[in-house]
Write a structure and sequence with these properties.
7 strands, single chain, Alpha-D-Glucose-1,6-Bisphosphate, Chain A, domain 4, seven-stranded antiparallel beta sheet, 27% helix
């Protein structure tokens, strides 16, 4: 079976400084608040080791059974402007896909322009590529909403 690959870029402008947005994107407590692709999906961080060479492990899926496992390896953490890491998505003990992800944060007035570049290889067929991109897009929409609530606490 041929290897299916795809690259995509996502962009958002968020109402937080680069330093505050960096915190939301790298701190496990915050990632659990926005990291799922939709409001039906939870993200549970089991291990957080956010440092160059560190490895994170988390699970995502429905609250009653977050059965997708993700292993993240951090390669570059240039706070608060850039992070580079890989993610491997595992389901049922099998790797489904692996991606290389780059975050770029740039000050934009009182906020931050965020660029996310993802290059993904699917080991389970081409349909995984679209699902993976939709998951990232949904996660960034959740991040937008979460950043909005952090910027304007009630």
């Amino acid at each position: 079976m041929p290897l299916d690959t795809k690259s995509f870029d996502l962009h958002r402008t968020l109402p937080l400084s680069p330093a505050k947005l960096w915190e939301l994107m790298t701190d496990a407590h915050h990632r659990e608040k926005w990291g799922g692709p939709d409001d039906q999906t939870v993200l549970v961080v089991d291990v957080a080791d956010v440092r160059v060479g560190g490895e994170d492990r988390h699970r995502c899926g429905p609250a009653e059974a977050p059965e997708f496992e993700v292993t993240t390896r951090w390669y570059d953490l240039t706070a608060p402007e850039r992070a580079v890491f890989t993610e491997t998505l595992i389901f049922g003990g099998e790797a489904v896909c692996t991606s290389l992800v780059t975050y770029n944060l740039e000050a934009a007035g009182k906020g931050t322009r965020l660029g996310v570049t993802v290059a993904v290889s699917s080991f389970s067929g081409p349909e995984t590529l679209g699902e993976f991109q939709n998951g990232w897009d949904g996660g960034l929409t959740n991040l937008e909403n979460y950043a909005q609530s952090v910027a304007q606490p009630t």
